[in-house]
Amino acid sequence: MTTYIDPFVDFSFKRLFATDESKPILIGLLNSIFKGRKYITAIQYGKNEYHGENIDEGGVVFDITCTDVDGSKFIIEIQRGYQKNFKERALFYTSRAISEQAPKGGRKDWGYNLTEVYLVAFLEDFNLPDSPRSEYVQDICLANRYTGRIFHDKLGFVFIELLNFVKKEDELDRELDKWLYALKHLTEFSKRPEYLSGPEFDQLFNLAKYANLTKEEREMYNASLKYKWDNKNVMDYARTEGRAQGIAEGKAEGKAEGKAEGLIEGEHKKAVEMAYEMLADNVPIDKILKYTRLSIEEIEALNS
């Protein structure tokens, strides 16, 4: 058993980010993500609106919703495996968080005065299909396609692709790098490294210490960890089977194409031989075209 718990399982995610005791951790993480754009001093947790534990949805999804003092809403989630319509689902849930701001009545007085909504998604074991592998943070906003000028700043998406985060401890240039390094390598530490210092990191490592869990909490953690590995085994098996099937289909297709090409070449050779014989017998060109189905250029080349 490692010294620190895996942050990317249901029990740990809630323990480290979704309790009153862990508020400083989440505030510190969000400030490192939105550095220069927002500064969060306090948050209030909202209802956990979506909790998917379905392999068909591409791995387990855990999410937390919270609101800061100015009303900005954050949806923080972990997506462990690939989901076909992941971007569409992100749009759906953020759009719902926007539409729910409309009052039941008095919309005239409200005047569509929206508060900001952000989705922060940690992608643990897959990448967005169109993202460069050299980047590990995709910060998406509504912008003019041609000028890049921001059209609206009250809806945003931050996708953190952990597979792409490969920095070493001496390459952690910014605060967000330290957070991502701590979370990605938490189970590998035997003690808190000195370069991950500060009250938020102190709290993170204190809450993440396996020895600090009660007996009941350990049972809950171990159950969550088992679920993660069971799910991963299923996903890995599906990938392996998919690759094997793809290779087999590719070989079969290659054989079929090769056979077809061979047949076509054989038929063409026969047509050329027939055209030579017909030319030797002074058969009119139009009949040679009709019976051999060669092109006029091919026949003229044979006749030259």
Query: What is the tally of beta strands?
Result: 6
**Share in β-strands:** 5-15%
What would the average pLDDT be, to the nearest integer?
A: 83
Work out the oligomeric state of the chains in this entry: single chain
Uncertain runs? 50-60
N- and C-termini, Cα separation: 83 Å
Major pleated sheet:
6 strands, mixed
- SSE succession: HHEEEHHEEEHHHHH
Number of helices: 9
Q: What structural class do the secondary elements suggest? A: alpha/beta
- Overall 3D form: elongated
Helix content: 40-55%
Radius of gyration: 30 Å
Biggest sheet strand order reads 1-2-3-4-6-5
Protein name: Rpn family recombination-promoting nuclease/putative transposase
Organism: Pedobacter nyackensis
Please, could you describe this protein's structure?
- The chain is of the alpha/beta class and 304 residues long.
- It has a domain at 10-213.
- The protein has 9 helices and 6 strands; from the N terminus they run ααβββααβββααααα.
- The longest helix has 66 residues, at 215-280.
- The radius of gyration is 30 Å and the shape is elongated.
